[in-house]
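chain and backbone:
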Amino acid sequence: MSFRASLFRSILTGFLLSPTLWTAPSLVAADKPMVLDLGGSISIELMNISPGEFMMGSTSAERAWATGIEGGATPGTDRESYEGDQPRRMRVKDRFWMSRTEVSVGQFRRFVEETGYVSDAEKPGGHAQCFDPEWNGYRLTTQVVHPWKPMPGKSWRDPNFGFPLRDSYPVVCVSWNDGRAFCDWLTKRERQAARIPEGLEFRLPTEAEWEYGCRGGSKESLYFWWGNELSDGEGRLNISAVDYLPGRNRIWPLANAPWSDGFAFVSPVDHYGERGRNGFGLADMCGGVWEIVLDHFDPKGGHEEAHFVATNPRPVCRGGNYFDVPGNARCAVRLGLQGPTYSDSRDGFRICLGTPRPVKP
């Protein structure tokens, strides 16, 4: 075992065995990421996040903005009600490490190369919800036509973007099952190399961990991690903005951020650098791609502890995506997927290292 691996293991073990170490200022203030070498010149960074409190959910004023002229979300639906009636103070009790970015195509490819894993969209009868290249508008005054449809043969290997896939893009067309399989592989891999103790595992973040991470240490109920002003988000995120669709002379319709973010579709992870990172150093927490988390969906609002249901589980996704209007890319936004196998070219995931949260029932 290398000196670095030995030191890392002793620090993590100390966190588990000695509560005093959890609050040691030199460790709480650590701002350097944990870097895991996945092989093939691919690595993954995880940021050290201390326990703390945050406000989950949104105010009525925030939801009114989201469905107003600037936010552009569709008014009169149940969607904003999923955030809860009012913000609730919650606490993340355990230290955890969260990946700086969504899992990238290159990182997911290493997992598949090492395991031979077949994603849900690639299995017999599988499909992914992808952009329809024949779509040319919503036709809102006649027959409404949406730009997404289920496509057999499409997967994380080819999300039907219409342009070449890069290893630096966030992986999409992956399901809740696929995200959990990636985490199981990483846990087994790092345990075998004696780089993590038995008391920790790689997994999807809980919904509370995700929103706490998204807010970047703020204890206020803000619309975005940087504040309430959309204009302050310029140069920080990838959402529906003033960018031409590939091969076309038009942008996404409906509400847009009034600037170019450089990408009509997906942007590379951490493309915006320091300006795109919040107080915890996490990038792309708003916009980019929807991020699938561990919890099952409760339409009444998120939970402090991981939440699971016995029947018809619908994994939660958070954060909005490259196609979303500004009102759908806030810290509090949450939706439930159709099921654990659902795959979409707007959905990806990020991971965390923390205490186990066994999926129930």
